[in-house]
Amino acid sequence: EDQVTQSPEALRLQEGESSSLNCSYTVSGLRGLFWYRQDPGKGPEFLFTLYSAGEEKEKERLKATLTKKESFLHITAPKPEDSATYLCAVQRRGGANNLFFGTGTRLTVIP
Amino acid sequence: DGGITQSPKYLFRKEGQNVTLSCEQNLNHDAMYWYRQDPGQGLRLIYYSQIVNDFQKGDIAEGYSVSREKKESFPLTVTSAQKNPTAFYLCASSINWNGNQPQHFGDGTRLSIL
Question: Residue B97 carries which DSSP code?
Answer without folding.
Answer: S
